[in-house]
Write a structure and sequence with these properties.
It comes from Glossina brevipalpis. The protein is α/β, with parallel strands linked by helices. It is about 30% helix and about 25% strand. It has a single domain (about 5-305), classed as 60s Ribosomal Protein L30, Chain: A. It contains nine helices and 19 strands.
């Protein structure tokens, strides 16, 4: 009863994207406004990159971050929660796992960062989840909508560039239009984006997903102004050599939910992740010494994240 669609409090949650767009066609216009913005390639300086099954929250006054963003979303959905009064924003990359808990964490983080600021609404934006053959994107959409609908706060859906609105036909294949977005935390502007460099510990963070982590990792400590990874562990991967011996096409077909539309670097990233797992079979021992997170601080000279040594 607390999801607000087109300014109207809802008793029921839309079952799918088609129902949402049929009952509230205004979201077609909102999506088109986003699609009309050219995709920007965002460099690493001032960037907080969020990977799959990760989230992060920050406020406009944060001197370490200008842009928070994510990409490579095909059947996944990018979720942005923003407080209209303070500008505090949280961004997550959801694939359907750990959504309920992460939604509560996102809203909680935004509320914490908005304390002491003028009153405002909690706004929700969804981007991704193209119309794929297996309807994985629809499942993720439904999970997200249900999670926000169950939340005790009123949450105003202001963008839903998902499903058919984020789909283009190329030949006879449905493809996503937008794979990634960035949010300028100073202004609240949201735009289609690609991220050639994705911040530190990329293979470590991807290994967590590959090995089946069931939670969404909060990767930023706004109070400390530091990127925070882990600690976590996973079981050793059997048959890593066999995976690495396969062709790129084999990896694509067996490790992707949407093999026809993955970016060209998919197989390369999968190989790097598997090699990392092979070399770090027990990250609790080899990576997270004394069970400590890996903290990164923004270097004021270069603008890059640098590992904090203890």
């Amino acid at each position: 009863m607390v999801l607000v669609l087109n300014g109207v409090l809802q008793d029921d949650c839309p079952m799918d994207t088609a129902s949402l767009f049929m009952q509230h066609p205004i979201y077609r216009d909102y999506a088109q406004q986003l699609l009309n913005i050219p995709t920007k390639s965002v460099g690493p300086v001032g960037l907080l990159y969020v990977g799959q099954r990760e989230m992060a929250a920050a406020a406009p006054h944060d001197k370490n971050i200008n842009i928070v963003g994510t990409d490579d979303a095909t059947t996944c959905i990018i979720v942005v929660v923003r407080h209209s009064g303070s500008g505090a924003v949280a961004l997550a990359h959801f694939d359907g796992t750990g959504v309920d808990e992460a939604v509560c964490t996102m809203v909680g983080r935004v509320q914490e960062l908005a304390l002491g600021y003028p009153e405002g609404r909690i706004e929700l934006q969804l981007i991704g989840g193209y119309r794929d053959p297996q309807s994985y994107g629809e499942e993720v959409f439904y999970n997200i909508m249900q999670s926000f609908h169950k939340h005790h706060l009123e949450i105003d859906l202001t963008q839903a560039c998902v499903g058919e609105l984020n789909t283009v036909l190329r030949g006879d294949v449905n493809c996503p239009i937008v794979y990634g977005v960035g949010v300028n935390i100073k202004t609240g502007e949201i735009f289609p984006a690609a991220f050639p460099e994705r911040g530190p510990d990329r293979e470590l963070r991807d290994a967590r997903i590959f090995m089946g982590a069931q939670n969404v990792l909060d990767v930023y400590d706004a109070a400390l102004g530091m990127l925070r990874i882990g600690p976590f562990n996973y079981d050793p991967l059997r048959g890593a050599d066999l995976w690495l011996a396969q062709s790129d096409e084999f990896l694509l077909q067996h490790l992707s939910s949407s093999p026809d539309v993955e970016p060209p670097h998919f197989a390369m990233h999968m190989r790097a992740t598997i090699r990392f797992i092979q070399e770090n079979q027990f990250p609790a021992i080899t990576v997270f010494r004394d069970n400590r997170p890996r903290y990164y601080r923004r270097d004021e000279t270069t603008g890059f994240w640098s590992l904090v040594r203890y």
